[in-house]
Amino acid sequence: MMRRHAIQIIPVIILFITAVYAKGGAERPTENPFQNNESARAAGQKLFARHCAECHGPTAEGTERAPSLREFVRSAAPRTLHTFIKNGNLRSGMPSWSRLPDPQLWQLVTYLQTLEP
Amino acid sequence: MIVILRIAVFVILALGIVAAPGLAQERPYFVTYDHHMEEPGNLEVATNPVIGQARGINTFIGNWTEFEYGAKGWWTSEFYIDSQHTMHDNALLTGFRFENRFRLLLREHRVNPVLYVEYEHVNGADKTLKEVVGFDGKEDHSEPNREARLEHERELETKLILSSQIKGWNVSENLIGVKNIHEGVWEFGYAFGISRPLALAASANACTFCRENFTAGVELYGGLGEWGDLTFKGTSQYVAPVLALNLPGGTTLRVSPGFGLTDQSHSTLVRFGVSHEFSGFGQQVRKVLRRNR
Predict the structure, then answer these.
(1) Interface test with chain A among B34, B38, B76, B107, by most A beta carbons within 10 Å
(2) Tens-digit pLDDT profile for residues B105-160
(3) What does the DSSP assignment read for B90-134?
(4) Residues of B in contact with A25 (CB under 8 A)
(5) Which ipTM was obtained for this model?
(6) Best label site of A106, A116, B49, B106, fewest CB within 10 Å?
């Protein structure tokens, strides 16, 4: 009997959570909350080494797998960079990094924008 | 089973020689899929044992060993080898699966759809419980292996994966349809997962056990009956908390104690997962092939 009640709750839980997140809507990037934050830059450097350096090189100078980021990141607005990392370019082989939470994407942006051209 | 685990370890070590470790963040779920694809050119090797217990059947360990390759940013291919060991019975290979996932929208949206198509050739002794459909239940696992292995199933499995990232949370729903290629009707199932990293921002220091490396969540999955008889009645249903640790270096450890919610379900399904990602595997293979030409 207890099990029968438990199973009836499943659709209710799914509907409730779906409704909550549908109402929440997609995240829209705003200004970089970590601008000029040294700790965020260090965290971004760690994230870059972990997720990006394999293709873009340890200091974003580029490899045979992916181009240098140094020029691009200096000229791009923080919001543009954030959106680009999040969406990637799936046709050209740049993966989407939407699996990283927003604060980590901003930490990456913070680090990238401190790179010298 | 031990032989299979040894082979998996050997393959991982051999791949380690030709490819650098990758550093992706893996999904914490065992049954539910999200919309995140394998990075192009990367290969992930994983082994995922599940221990199943229920009254009236022998405890078993099912296992799938998987090879996941990022063919394109929007296309991931996987090959699985299934096996099992049942207490007071024997151990055996139970078949293989070949799956492809296609991301339908190339940019992030509120809901991101992915189409999943899989061909599986397994026998009746398969106990991986990688998904639950139709009226699958613990009774299916009560037959001795020597009899169950004689049933051969060639099935086409399709899934519609819907997945969203909302303020650090991942919410994923999968609708599953399975059809035996030669006979029978479509069987349906579902999986639903929600998870979140324990910390959204990364710490500045290098660390292994910091909170951002852990992801916790829960998944619900079960059968929905079959064509002409869509129902929860008589189906297996499970709820399973999940916990994953993404280690720096490309290895992910996962654990999930699952609990049956209906009389047809196993009492517990405890799952473990170890995966390792090899970055640039495709490029390395292409290089070797070019050199040999």
Answers:
(1) B107
(2) 999 999 999 999 999 999 999 999 999 999 999 999 989 999 999 999 999 999 99
(3) -EEEEEEEEEEEEES-SS--SSEEEEEEEEEEEETT----SS--B
(4) 110
(5) 0.86
(6) A116
